[in-house]
Amino acid sequence: MMKETGTDPGRHALFLTNTLSGRKQRFQPRDPNRVTLYVCGPTVYNYAHLGNARSAVVFE
Prior knowledge:
- By secondary structure, this protein is largely without helices or strands.
- It has one helix spanning about 55-60; strands spanning about 15, 25.
């Protein structure tokens, strides 16, 4: 489990842009002890290349 360091709890906050509103919002995970990320698999519709394996290598 990761904990924020320092005296200011917002010092290491993560802000993401809400593409619907166009505003930056502080990221607050549903579970404060776990953050997950959905990553689509490769879209293989042409010749094979190293980029097709990137998501499997980087996110596994």
